[in-house]
Amino acid sequence: MLNNLIQRFPTGVRFMLLSALGFALMAVCVKAASGYGIPVLEIVAARALVSLGLSYLDIRRKRLSPWGQHHGLLFARGAVGALALVCVYYAVTTLPLATATLLQYLHPAFTAVLAWLFLRERIRLATLLCIVLSMTGLLLISKPGLIATAVPELPMLSLVAALCGAFGSAIAYVLVRRLSRVEDSSVIIFYFPLIALPLSLVLLGGDFVMPSAEAAGLMLLVGIFTQVGQVGLTRALQTEEAGRATAFSYVQVVFAFVLGWVFFDELPTLVTWLGGGLIILGALLNAVWKR
Predict the structure, then answer these.
(1) Would the pLDDT of 145 be above 70?
(2) Is the residue at 48 inside a domain?
(3) pLDDT grade, residue 176 (50/70/90)?
(4) Which of 11, 124, 125, 197 is 20 to 30 Å apart from 286, CA to CA?
């Protein structure tokens, strides 16, 4: 019965839901690993190492060249994605899980602004509403004292990291969409850890911490769940139904709320939900109105 229910969803929707669950579980493992004193850059390196091995095996299975044809775009996707990942992981480890996830969904507003600045795309009414609602939601989350004096403000460095992560994700999504027309999904995925691994190791320097067995297991799961999320996202963007499936990616917020409550006893404040609701509403309006 469950299988028949799943089959009713379009292919793009199923891949997007799989991606949302994979990334939500990844965030749980990242936060848990940081609790063992593992630096963020070390978690990024561990994730990249696991993803690199899995991606290479997938490329060998398809009998493809791992280097692709459009090296500049592939390198840019990997570099931007790696830097954004560092910011996202820092936000996940220092903010409530649901809050960090909500702030990631500022990327549609950032994407619209980037398209206007660099591609000269006209900002439509739906896009303008998305930007206004997203910025209003961000203001409420970052400055809860505007409507509730009893709610403490979030750390500014963590908020900046979350914003940089969302901005980098916007650039990465544009690059993935462009590359999906000319490169195999496995090659696109392979370049991400290919760039992220050496970059994170260089930035980590001498701050390496020898992980315990539990921490090592969590970092392994970070890589595995990341691969699930990346494959689901890339495959969804390559299918005809992916456009309609975009709205379903926001179920990751629900996953993050439930998992944060179960594993970390985190309950977001009403102000967080109000601001997050505006962000999600703006992103949904932008995604649905265009269709």
Answers:
(1) no
(2) yes
(3) confident
(4) 11
Question: What's the structural domain count of the chain?
Answer: 1
Compute the distance between CA of residue 140 and CA of residue 46 in angstroms, rounded to an integer: 35
Q: What is the model's pLDDT at position 266?
A: 82
- DSSP string across 66-96: TT-S-HHHHHHHHHHHHHHHHHHHHHHHHS-
- Cβ(92)–Cβ(233) under 8 Å? no
102 Cβ contact partners less than 8 Å away, ≥ 6 residues apart: 137, 141, 253, 256, 272, 275, 276, 279, 280
Q: Does residue 44 lie within any of the structural domains?
A: yes
Where do we find the tokens 């709610």? 151
Radius of gyration of the chain (CA): 19
Residue 244 in contact with residue 10, Cβ under 8 Å? Answer: yes
User: Is residue 189 packed enough to be buried (19+ CB in 10 Å), middle (13-18) or exposed (0-12)?
Assistant: buried
Q: Which two tokens stand for residue 179?
A: 């590359």
**Burial class for 65, CB neighbours closer than 10 Å (0-12, 13-18, 19+):** exposed
Average pLDDT taken over every residue of the chain: 80
Judged against a pLDDT cut of 70, whether residue 287 lies above it is answered with: no
Tokens representing 75 are 């390198």
Give the number of other CB atoms < 10 A from CB of residue 212.
12
Residue 132 covered by a domain: yes
* Distance, CA of 105 to CA of 174 (rounded, Å): 15
The token pair that represents 187 in the structure block:
């090659």
Asked if residue 3 belongs to a domain, the reply is: no
* pLDDT exceeds cutoff 50 at 242: no
**pTM of structure:** 0.81
Q: pLDDT for 207-217, tens place per residue?
A: 889 999 999 99
Please list, residue by residue across 236-257, b when 16 or more beta carbons sit within 10 angstroms of its beta carbon and e when fewer do.
Answer: bbbbeebebbbbbbbebbebbb
pLDDT higher than 90, residue 105:
no
